[in-house]
Design goal:
This protein is an alpha/beta fold. It has one domain: Carbamate kinase (3-Layer(aba) Sandwich). Helices cover 42% and strands 21% of the residues. The strands form 3 sheets. Strands 5-8-2-1-11-13-14-12 form an 8-stranded mixed beta sheet, with helices on both faces. Strands 6-7-10-9 form a 4-stranded mixed beta sheet. It has a two-stranded antiparallel sheet with strand order 3-4. Helix 3 crosses helix 5 (93-117), helix 4 crosses helix 5 (93-117) and helix 7 packs parallel to helix 9 (241-253).
Amino acid sequence: MKIAASTRAAVLSEALPHLQRFAGHVVVVKYGGNALAGSGDDAMEVFARDIALLHAVGIKPVVVHGGGPQISALMDRLGKQATFHNGLRVTDAETMEIVSMVLLGTVNPMLVSMINTAGADAAGVSGQDMGLFHCVQRDPALGFVGDVVNVNPAAVQGLLDDGVVPVVATLGTDDKGQSYNINADTAASALAVALKATKILFLTDIAGVMRNPNDADSLISTLTPGEVAELRESRVISGGMIPKVESCLDAVRGGVGAAHILDGRMAHVTLLELLTDAGVGTMFVSDSVGGKS
């Protein structure tokens, strides 16, 4: 489809105040495993170009990635049955090796390579590097699944200071150096707080919080913690949506300006959220900012 020159000019003009607002600011983008699984190479290349564009105009993007579906796929190929407890992957020693193989050996270098190819310098970071994510074991029944208790953002901040896009794999270590698998949403939220990020975007396979999951027009554009509590009580927010929403609220409570749940399968969704007046998805802000639902 050919776009008229006037339309292109109007789009660029609309983006200008947003570019000015976010220039020099840290924006954390969590690229979920479900978004990765639901997009082909072309979609990932579009994502990488969008990150490179943000970097080129002076914004400081930090990419944090998951890899749940990719981990399950490799386990299947290796003949190992994936087991879940309370919705979380049971991670024994062999599974922990597979998790490391996928995150550090496949997903992370693939994203780094695509962002580099798109024109921005990018570098992979493990949550184990320089004690980025310090963990404790969540539950012995889950094995090597960790909860982040401290974030040392030095490795990531150093890359940002050098003009490099950090791409972070969500592994962590405890006091004894044991590796842990970390939920990528909670890790991204904790990192955004530690970096004093202006925004955090959670790219997943849903459009946001909807009053009716079967009605796209029921998408809620803005939510506060108080409104989330009401929606949880009425079970509009339930099940697997709860931990993702909690990660958004943790970020906002920790000082991040806003958190967003976006459909990562949508082309240019990162740019649509950051650089247009309307935005997309669901935005979470503090009660003091307020919002409309």
